[in-house]
Amino acid sequence: MMDIALDRARPGERWVLRRRLADGSATDVIGWVIGTVPDPLLEIEGGAQIRVERGSVILAKRVPTARGGPDPRRTPAAELERAALPGWVALSEPLGEWTLRAAGGFTDRANSALAVGDPGLPISDAAARVVRYAAEHDIAPRAQVIIGSEVDADLTGLGWRPVSVPVEVLVTRLTTLLGDDLPDPCVVVGETLDQAWWRAFSRSRPNDTDPELLRMLLDGHPPRAYAAVLGRDGEHVAIARGHVSGPWFGITTVWTESTHRRAGLTAAMTRALGHWAARYGARNAYLKVAADDDGAHTAYAGLGFVRHHSYRHLDAPHQAEKVTKRVSRPARRS
């Protein structure tokens, strides 16, 4: 009977195997199936592999691909923003609970102070430090604030003004995103930023930013992974990037070649990266979408994403000298 259950297990599914130990006690092994012949081989959370002697198994059951947990909407907005920080940062410097960031002007998110919490200074002094840091890195003096937060009110009270469309942060449980499906075999996921993925990224967002800074954004702060769909010529026709920070899995740099859109590739890459993230202990997923990007909101709602909070970018007032950005307008999921 147990053999029948094990023989139904497919590679990539997450199973719990209860096995009898030599002293008569029992213990559970939970992991993703690599194979079942002759004995089941599981990859447990963190990447280690365990082979379980088939004859010792007294219970075998498939379980959800990711661990469960509380509703991600219960997480405070500030906590989620701090969790998301390592997923998209190049140069940075702490300012109390704030983080000053710079990346050669590539995306507002990577070139603004994450102004969340207490900067450890009077707000006017903290604002002045943001301006100085921006000048040191030749970027616009900019702050990312949670809409409706105390910091938002304090900075606008000092004359800081919105410079872009608000961004909405969407969340979902990873179990909701993944369901019972295995990753689509058309999606390749790896943890190496290879040249093919880099070429596709360059096509998706042409820019003249320092390549070293871009690599710091894309390749820094593991665990992170790169998803791709290959065309007939072997080049990538769709890409996405995933990052894990504690229980949170974030999705960025989603792009599909115009000739391959409306084929479900964004959903396929998002789910494939979600399967990767589950093996690093992620329980929830988040992504950031411009408030007026109706198409993206509709697509991600279909994957189970709901609104968590919104943020916006504020520019310092009375800039004596405007900094000219060296890149094209950032993509809307910044």
Structural description of this entry:
This protein is of the alpha+beta class. The chain folds into 3 domains: 2-62, Roll (SH3 type barrels), CATH 2.30.30; 75-166, no CATH class; 169-309, Gcn5-related N-acetyltransferase (GNAT) (Aminopeptidase), CATH 3.40.630.30. 25% of the residues lie in helices and 31% in strands. The chain has 9 helices and 17 strands. The protein has helices at 2-7, 77-84, 123-136, 150-157, 174-178, 195-204, 211-219, 265-278, 294-301; strands spanning 14-20, 26-35, 41-43, 49-51, 57-63, 91-95, 98-102, 113-114, 142-146, 161-162, 167-173, 187-190, 224-230, 236-245, 248-256, 284-290, 306-315. Strands 8, 9, 10, 11, 12, 13, 14, 15, 16 and 17 form a 10-stranded mixed β-sheet that branches. It has a 5-stranded antiparallel β-sheet with strand order 4-3-2-1-5. A two-stranded antiparallel sheet has the order 6-7. A hairpin with a 2-residue loop joins strand 6 (91-95) and strand 7 (98-102). The chain starts with a helix and ends in a 19-residue tail after the last strand. The relative contact order is 0.17. The model is unreliable at 320-334 (pLDDT under 50).
